[in-house]
Amino acid sequence: MKTKQITILADTVSASFLPFVRRPGRYIGGEVNQIKKDLSAVDLTFALCFPDIYEIAMSYSGLAVIYNILNQMPNVAAERLFLLWTDAEKILRQKNIPLFTLESKAAAKDFDVIAFSLTNELCYTNVLNALDLAQLKVKSADRDEHDPLIIAGGLISNCCEPLADFIDLFVLGEGEDIAPILANFLIEQKKQNTSKSQTLINAAKKFDFVYVPSLYTFEYENDKIKSFKPNIPDLPTQFKSAVTEDFENAPVPLKPIVPFTQTVHERVSIEIMRGCPGRCRFCQISYCRRPIRYRSVEKILELAKQNYHATGFDTVSLLSLSTADYPQLKQLTEKLHEYFHDKHVGLSIPSLRVDQQLKLLPSLVASVRKGGLTIAIEAANEKVRQIINKPLKDTDIFSAVEAAYTAGWQKLKLYFMVGLPGETEDDIEQIVKLSYDLAKLRKKIDGKTGQINAAVSWFVPKPHTPFAWLPQKPKQYFQDAKKIILQQKEKLNARFIQFKFHGIEQSILEAAISRADRRICDVIELAWKNGAKFDLWTECFDYQIWKDAFEKFNLDPETLAQKKFDTEDILPFQHLGGPEKDYLAKHLSDAMQIMK
């Protein structure tokens, strides 16, 4: 790794870029609590990229944590790097301006490291677009010693083979403990003038949470993986996800950046627990982020106070996979209410699960703004819930919703998933009937009908879950299910229920990519070259581009999505952290027994 001169583009950006874009607030930086260092005075520079636009990226707490940790190191500077919306990208390309960071308006290609946070398979083309906008080659093999080290982290690292040709190094697991360790390692390699290729080898040998895909080769036999081997001796073939052991004292930004332009979430966000005691068999994060860890009430309260006084945000959000499982939730909400109620600061409690604890709802949420309560039910049938290992009882659902109405809630947002193993047409119809009955339940309280917003997604078999071996339902199944739901709504004249459906073709593509091996890299690159980007955005997503790209390589996304693996198969992601294969297979067997 070599020391490079970093090009500052501030004057060019001000004169030739900002006056011509629709929302310059996305690109100007300089917000309250931003951290800006002299890039020439540190030993290592990071450009931290969330591959989406400012409004989305600034709402992702994981990036803020790593930004804070790295900038606490006196010899390291980390700056933010986000994607440009289509109008701004056009200007950047027309004027041949390389993609730049927000803090210093520095060319990203001149940083030591560009590190991506990856949260969904449909952001992959954005990763390639970011590299190209930075005026870098998208494939690792085509970049040289003068180019930045390209790192990626986040949950997608646990199933990262579809990006193997583009990323130099993947970091598996949680970043709080390992970010400074990896940064110090890279500083040492840089001081020793170690080549980039040797730095990657040294990292692969030293850290079990590091995966360098270029150092490994797969052998294939038709559509199956025959073997997975290192290219040089003494390299591991099984990797582990890093775990933040002391979650209580794990670093948290005490002065979060206050955006200039409105973002998706503008609030004080405090992660109160990590991991989930539930083991929903479709949920990758619940299997890959273990064990369960909690922050104390005192620590959460202190963090919330400091964040509030540093930002002025008017909502405190308690983050976790299942906030209702926080063992001291009642005490925590009481303490927060006691401090914040006279400051007109509301409390947001997402991820509420319907169980016995949620019956305490009226006493738990006295200070929560009661615009709408979100509950993830997933399946409208109790047996299907047992199959997916989310054994909620209908009686508990109705008790909890009645408690919510009594506490002053007027609207409910319900999450359902269609295409789950063991599901029948009756179960799909029951989604409407359950939503209808829950809306009518409010009449017992105040004589009015509740308002229901029901979000319906399509089951995607995810890596490192018990359902990873199973096929996704065909496209026609989802299309028919959507018709059934809308017909049932019309039959019941349920105008007070609004259904929002996730894109079927987006879910098919997600399923096709998520369990694929690195042979799909060429498909992703071709789709990007042909215009695929912002695939998570409905207005930008073009399924035909993807179908054409798959066809070019004699593949089909729907065939891949519907692929069924055998339990003895070598899976494309089984070397990348996650639970033991036998453990997941036992879960799958248990689910199959319930289906009989």
Explained architecture:
Helix content is 35%, strand content 14%. Strand 12 (315-319), helix 10 and strand 13 (346-348) form a beta-alpha-beta unit. The mean pLDDT is 93. It contains 21 helices and 17 strands. It has helices at residues 10-16, 54-57, 61-71, 86-94, 124-133, 178-191, 196-206, 284-288, 297-311, 329-340, 361-364, 382-387, 394-406, 425-440, 443-446, 475-491, 504-514, 521-529, 543-552, 557-561, 581-595; strands at residues 44-50, 76-82, 113-117, 149-153, 169-171, 210-211, 216-221, 224-230, 268-271, 273-274, 293-294, 315-319, 346-348, 373-378, 411-418, 451-458, 497-501. The protein is globular. The chain has three domains: 10-230, Rossmann fold, CATH 3.40.50; 267-369, Transcription Regulator spoIIAA (2-Layer Sandwich), CATH 3.30.750; 372-515 and 563-596, Transcription Regulator spoIIAA (2-Layer Sandwich), CATH 3.30.750. It is of the alpha/beta class. The strands form five sheets. The chain has a six-stranded mixed beta sheet. It has a four-stranded parallel beta sheet with strand order 14-15-16-17, with helices on one face.
CATH class of the largest domain: Alpha Beta
Distance between the termini: 58 Å
Instruction: Compute the average pLDDT.
Output: 93
Number of E-type strands: 17
Helix and strand arrangement:
Blueprint: H1 10-16, E1 44-50, H2 54-57, H3 61-71, E2 76-82, H4 86-94, E3 113-117, H5 124-133, E4 149-153, E5 169-171, H6 178-191, H7 196-206, E6 210-211, E7 216-221, E8 224-230, E9 268-271, E10 273-274, H8 284-288, E11 293-294, H9 297-311, E12 315-319, H10 329-340, E13 346-348, H11 361-364, E14 373-378, H12 382-387, H13 394-406, E15 411-418, H14 425-440, H15 443-446, E16 451-458, H16 475-491, E17 497-501, H17 504-514, H18 521-529, H19 543-552, H20 557-561, H21 581-595
Parallel strand pairs: 1-2, 1-3, 3-4, 4-5, 9-12, 12-13, 14-15, 15-16, 16-17
Antiparallel strand pairs: 5-6, 7-8, 10-11
